[in-house]
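*** Residues and shapes ***
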Amino acid sequence: MALDTDLTTGPSATSPQEERIRAHYGMVRKLGNWTSALRFDVRATRGNVLLDLRSPRIEEGDIEIRLDIDHALLRLLVPEDATVEHEEVRRVGAGRVKDGGVTSSGRRIHLHGEMRNAEVRVQRGGVAMLSAMLTREYVQDLRQAHREGRYPTIDDPTRGA
């Protein structure tokens, strides 16, 4: 199974305008302060995608995520007060958006596109921190932070701002 990770702390290597994420039969994790974009294009087939949208480096404004996911799982780590709007998502087959913490204040995240037998899970607060901490990337960040005498930023990207 392929695994693509990005632990960069600066702006993304692609366009700061839009991030393209592809996970076909694999796993992609984008954690910490990995981007400053407001637009994301996510395509996955029988894969898993983990996107961390809690970074203070992400510009102010609404975030737009275009989906084309088939038999895939997209996990979004969002700020505590974020609102995820998914009315524009076309669902084909058994698919759903699991979002237990619906709020009305803070940043808005708009989902568009199509899900075919796929699932989007929205995680906030402590659950988002725990999700980030249960990755290899967090262990790498923790070791590097210890060597450099700083705190890790994967679990809480606001700490590195």
Observations:
- The CA atoms of residues 73 and 86 lie 15 Å apart.
- Helices lie at 125-133, 136-148.
